[in-house]
Prior knowledge:
Layout: H1 2-11, H2 16-35, H3 41-55, H4 61-70, H5 76-89, H6 93-109, H7 116-124, H8 128-137, H9 141-157, H10 161-170, H11 177-195, H12 200-217, H13 222-248, H14 254-257, H15 283-292, H16 296-305, H17 310-329, H18 335-349, H19 355-364, H20 370-383, H21 387-403, H22 410-418, H23 422-431, H24 435-451, H25 455-464, H26 471-489, H27 494-511
Helix pairs in contact: 1-2, 2-3, 4-5, 5-6, 6-21, 6-24, 8-9, 8-10, 9-21, 9-24, 15-16, 16-17, 17-18, 19-20, 20-21, 23-24, 23-25
Amino acid sequence: MFEEAEKFAITFDLDLELVYKVKLDFVLEQLASASVGGYGEGVWSELVEEAKTNLMKITDEQYVVEYCLKAPWPTFETAEKMLNHAATRYSSLQIQEALARLATFCSLHGLDNFNGIAWIEFLNSMDNLGDILAHLREGDLKGAQLIWLRYEGHIAAEFDERNLKAVLDVIPEDLPSQDLCPWFRTVFVPFVRRVLPSGQKILERWLEQRARNLELTEKDDDYGAEEVESLKSLVSNLRQLLDLHRKYSCRLSLSVFEKVCFLFSRGEPISSVVVRCFTEALPENRLSRLLHKHMFEEAEKFAITFDLDLELVYKVKLDFVLEQLTSASVGGYGEGVWSELVEEAKTNLMKITDEQYVVEYCLKAPWPTFETAEKMLNHVATRYSSLQIQEALARLATFCSLHGLDNFNGIAWIEFLNSMDNLGDILAHLREGDLKGAQLIWLRYEGHIAAEFDERNLKAVLDVIPEDLPSEDLCPWFRTVFVPFVRRVLPSGQKVLERWLEQRARNLELTEKV
């Protein structure tokens, strides 16, 4: 009887916040039921609105923060909005870390598979290495890679030989080498060399044994055989080109040579070789003209008729779609048009077997919405084991946390994806007084920042922190993240930090004395 309780508390001047808190606790129980499917969308949307309304009446910061952290919100959008609601009211490092983990959870499970109970369990499980082992044990290398990329800095802090052996032991025997090798080559092996040099012998022995096993389990690898045949063909063509040049002073490009049919003499000496190109008679040139005019249907039919490269048609068409997507991202078209463009891109990408092209296309396309960008990247991730795509998904989640779903912009997303200067991005956010944005990027990429952090970088961070940034906002981050980071990564920089803190304290005595 919350309405009566509220009126009674007002009448007798009792603690109104107690009424709101009890009501919120009741709503929390209903939200738990909603998250496991106990209510329909209409009911839980009312519960969320009820929770938000009552949280606005609470002045107890710790209660509001903890409530938003333990509530099993029914959808990703709701969880993000409620966490951002708390973040706008209070400068809480807990909320920033929760937003970062929410983005990770979303990348692991997808927007459509969001579950409030599972989200809370993931949020409260801070055993990142344990989560990675669980994903590896199930053969989910993509999930393991994603968590590793997000929390590499945290993992490095306590990584030892026992952890190394644990990771190696859970990697399934039947995990294909073409999936495992890119991650090992670009991430895991360099990590072990940098963080745990003593573990390199363990890693070498494991790799040696793995290689022996792969000789047995992957000996019939058709892909490898095709690669060898392709290489042999290339070497043979290059050798014949060299013979033509040496014997007959005939210079041809490899592409022309592969299209030329040679008629050899029956023993008569050859004094010269003449190569004539009948450009108008070549079907390739007709195809090129059709593509140049964007006559893609005619080009496709023509390519089929003359047994030409169909993928070339699809690639040129995709490049044309890419130009239109760029216009869509800056507001040149309506939703109906860009949704057709996205479908056109997806349809044609399905026809392409060139892995590198598909991966690069999805990494440079300015998809108009967050949902589209995530779906297209996940589409590629299901086709290929690409570390680039996994890293892009991680950065997409970061970008979303920084700007929100509603403010997504394709052009800005591509610029953020291609900007791998994480420290530079942090400095830009600090310079604008956006401590929350700087904290978020720092939490995501602390491991990468640590690899090249020096006194010049330390001074750069300290120099851009605005003088008018309130100490109650800055101190929690300094105390729990930045100062421990400097002590661990750059001990020689502690004097620089101490001098800066001393000067900052003097300034604060003047600016915040009231």
